[in-house]
Here is the input.
Amino acid sequence: MVKKRRVKKSVKIIGSIFIIAIIFLIMLTNYLIKINSIDYKLKEKGYNDEEITSIKANLDENKINDIVKLEYDENLPKLISQKYFIYDKLNLYLDYSKENKLDAKKVISLVNANTYKDHYTDIVKTDTSLNELLIVNKYYQLSSDYEPEDLIEVPTMYAYSGIKLSNVAYEAFKELFNAAKSEGYTIVINSGYRSYDSQEAVYNRNKNNYGTTYADNFVARPGHSEHQTGLAVDVADYENSSEDFEKTEAYQWMLDNAHKYGFILRYPKDKEDITGYSFESWHFRYVGVDIATKIHSLDITYDEYYTYFIENK
Ligand SMILES: [Zn+2]
Here is the structure.
């Protein structure tokens, strides 16, 4: 009898230990699952529920696992939810946000357009194989011997005399010209292709007369002018050529219609900090109808478009 009771007792003890061990294992597993969860890791870093929701909506798990290795940053949730956010540029966005009190949208624009850097720093040769989509700005340059292969002289019906353009831009401009003409506007080209040497002469003349700061605000350095691509035109309203182009109806017509023929206003108003150029109501750039239409509806600069839609792909 005594023996039986003892056996019963030890079975009870072993049973209890077994149950406790099971409970402990379940708790440990739950704990391990919890501390490895994305929410827990982000919370531990200091992100609140709203920020965590934003991070999870915009980044995949691998990227979030990288994020939790960084220090908490209040700018991060706002930056990653921006339309043109590029993950590979995250550290640039974070650093720039920290140094400058700017909203997230502006930070993304300036970093994507490279204008967060001093002008003419980290200059690279532009990819001319992109043809009408090649980019030229203060960070991407053309070599001194670059000349478009399809340069033609524009007939004086469409331009002042002696103006050359890339044929693809010329063909598109003719259509633009005719469309404008049918609505009563005579929009002519007063500057087209410029060689590296002629751009150098213009730049040096301005630099010698007015100093480097003035020259850089208004004139591109040689190799950095869109006019060397043969894809850019400066236009004028032939009927009101003495008038500031911005004040003419022809300018309004260009704003509303140029994209239908493949041209974009390259240096818009209020985007000087993004393009690095003063507003130029007269300077249009050929990029083809599809891209021009997209840029027109997205209302972004070509510098931003290039980084996000061309370079980033
Ligand atoms: Zn121009």
Remarks:
- Strands lie at 124-125, 140-141, 151-153, 164-166, 187-191, 232-237, 263-265, 283-286.
- Residues 2-35 form the longest helix (34 residues).
